[in-house]
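Journal club side-thread
Mid-discussion, someone asked how the predicted structure for our own chain would compare to the paper's figures. Pasting it here so we can look after the session.
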Amino acid sequence: MAGLACYGLHRLWMLRHWLQLSRRSAQPISWSEDDPCPLVTVQLPLFNERFVARRLIDATARLDWPVDRLQIQVLDDSTDDTCGVVDDAVAYWQTQGVDIAVLRRDNRQGYKAGALAVATPQARGEFLALFDADFIPQQDFLRRTMGHFKQPEIGMVQARWGFLNRDQSWLTQLQAILLGPHFGIEHRVRCRQGLFFNFNGTAGVWRRQTILDGGGWQADTVTEDLDLSYRCQMKGWKFCYVDDVVVPSELPVTLGDFRGQQQRWAKGSMQTARKILPLVLRSPQSLGVKVEAMAHLLANLGWLCAAMASLTLYPALLSRSTFHLWQVLLIDLPLFLLASLAILSYFFLYAYREIGWKAALWVPVLPLLTLGMAPSLAWAALCGLFQRGGVFNRTAKYGSSGDVPVKRLVSIYSHKSHRVLWVNGSLMIYSILPVVLTIQQQHWLALPLVGLFPLGFLLVFVKDFLEVRHNG
């Protein structure tokens, strides 16, 4: 609980600075039609993306940039019929005069980082724009981002993620609330405060020299974007976040896909922390930059704290058969307020101001989802502390825009969750014990807190069960 309270304190710090920034509006910087345009290479890493590959290629081919100053590399490692979709789309745009080509490898060594490492030496552009398969860049994307590179110290420009299918289900609603503040609050605050922040793997543009100075794409973590971001910023390059440039993307539509995505991020951030934090702490950066970098890279330890709270709640209640008022006022209440209400306030205020009051109504469901997922994500974070690299599990995309049913497509890329069902089912039964004990001891004020744990495991268990049954 103390670890989660520290996380809550950091959220309050972020919230304070965000509210101050919200009173000022940044002036957009666009690339003028009269200025000579630098050569830009757009890189599109793909792996088995049959439903969205054509949409992405079409969108990038229509970018508003001089055709003789634009190169598109489709980095296709696919092993299914995506290859045919890609070849057809590329052949069409080649007939339209677009400089676009497919790069394929004999293996997936290094996964996305490996594909980018192979493709970058073949890129002709001074600047490299990257888009994942489920993103749809607007035509004016380059016009609205490239202007920031007129400052020679800027090495990377990151745009904001938008969500095409936010309203598709309660799960996508909650994901939008969880991911939105990472851009709308964290990136904005870190950028304005001169702190380290990260490229998110897509919807951004790199200065080629920045990647070279940082040591290039490396595959010893499964979050190669986070790793490279810190290495480049420690070399003196500055990053820029543009909140007014939004690139629509697709949120995972199943809990299995969402869990897999979060597990990769949790594991990769811990791998990056183990690799990068010693270098950051030995660097000449200011104390504030170092402390915030620790908070950033170690944030996924919160999953470990939540899982430990779930597992130790029952013995903790047994060991405290009597509650004293001073314990409640001095220990329990402050920890509870920082570990729960502070974090919920962070998400609620963002959802209310940036999305709308209807989205804010979903915030009370967040603790249930996060508690139910905490054990599996805690395990991923632990693996990241002790393992190098690993399999880059792609997140399935179905070309969903929120109003297109995808249930019949989900089984193609489904994640079988039988083991997760057993784990969450067991934890759900175990988490009922603290509720029974609380009732027996008539500690009614503690009942809402201890009741969150079985409800969270029940929510995730039911969702996993329905997905497993649907996918056969």
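Post-session note: Residues 407 and 470 are 9 Å apart (CA to CA).
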